[in-house]
Amino acid sequence: MERIQALAAALPEHADGYLITSESNIFYFTGFPCDAALLLVTRGGSFFFTDSRYREAAQRVIRGVTFCDTAQFAERFPAVCAEQGVRRMLVESSALTVREAQRYASLLPQTELLYEDDLVFLSVFRRKKSADEVDKMTRAQRIAEAALERILPLLRPGRTEKEIALELDYTMLRMGAEALSFRTIVVSGENSSLPHGVPGERQLRDGDFITLDFGAVADGYHSDMTRTFALGHCTDEMRAVYDTVLRAQEAALAAMRPGTACRDADAAARDVIAAAGYGAYFGHGTGHGVGVQIHERPNVSPRSAETLQPGDVVTAEPGIYLPGKFGVRIEDMVLITTDGYSNFTKADKQLCVLPA
Predict the structure, then answer these.
(1) How far apart are CA 60 and CA 259, in angstroms?
(2) What are the structural domains of the chain?
(3) Which of 90-104, 137-151, 190-204 has the lowest mean pLDDT?
(4) What is the 3-state secondary structure (H, E, C) of 45-57?
């Protein structure tokens, strides 16, 4: 209710309403996750449209809105907009298909649909995390770490990447996760040079690096972490690369404080990797925001024009990926505080060589 009221109060002068259609923003503003709903927010009232499958459940959660059935959407939606005097309506352009946009335009011939940068507008609300949101993300992270600890004994020669991923997923869900943050990544040996590789039938072998990138969802909020382990033994080159990534991540973390340009936090990690001679093997950004979605603002990358602010939750995840050989990534998730950062991630990140 408070978030909807805040959204209504923040409507710019040139708009009469905001049409929210993405599942993530519907959840953020109402507390109700639904993939078949839309929320119309005006200065005079707020209206939640859904169908009979979700109506009762939504009514138990959402307060301060008028519920409307989408069975009569073609009649009810234009009528509500007319009643509320909506002549100019902001829409989530990134959450609409062309067909949906055309439908809204045909239903509202007298209303101008404003396809502005909705991410900038809504991220004002979603970017700064409240204490309650931080608690939920902490719970998600504790679930993920406990699951990792539980499945570590399974990282042995002969096990496949897919088996490990399935065990990790099952363990997170069994330990209280309501969902997985994303498709779990488990890659080993030469596959570990694939930053977003898909777990396959490759069996773990003595001398492998094994990278696990995963997260849990608790009360609608995500966690995100990556750890890389060595199996059996570790070459000097593997140790050197791991040490470089760890130093790069620590440099990025040290730079993460209010007022730091995101590109500078990225550069702190990138400079360490480049100085070690591996600059060409780190292609992605150093981090990203996390919240009700696994990728939110701000982005910690060379192209970012944003500045870190208190309340931001971002990852620090530099990596080095040597094609055909191996890769290393280490990722923590942190909260930007008034004087630095607080790390959600407690799992050890010193090089761990597991018994083969």
Answers:
(1) 41
(2) 2-126 (3.40.350.10), 131-354 (3.90.230.10)
(3) 90-104
(4) CEEEEECCCCHHH
